[in-house]
Amino acid sequence: MDENIVDNLKSESRWFRLVFMVLFGIAAYLAGFLVMLIALIQAVHGFVVGEPNQRLLNFSDSVNQYIFQIASFLTFNSDVKPYPFSDWPQGSPTDIDE
To answer: H/E/C letters for each residue in the chain?
Structure first.
């Protein structure tokens, strides 16, 4: 086998990244489920009140950003580990009158 491949297989950092990738993949799956739940709640809230819930808009924006951070980490576009190893992304205030 090529010496470079053997060195890569022995690299602890690559194995740790693989473990983190699996864990963050599970977190992304759960966050996706949370987004669907928020969408359902927002739909019901929209029928009852007539407009979306502002706090849920901000929270769902931060969850969307978190999923993006996970996707960036999983695809090697970023080496920064998402929450809980970094700060939770802040949802941008959304104006619902736009």
So the answer is: CCHHHHHHHHCHHHHHHHHHHHHHHHHHHHHHHHHHHHHHHHHHHHHHHCCCCHHHHHHHHHHHHHHHHHHHHHCCCCCCCCCCCCCCCCCCCCCCCC
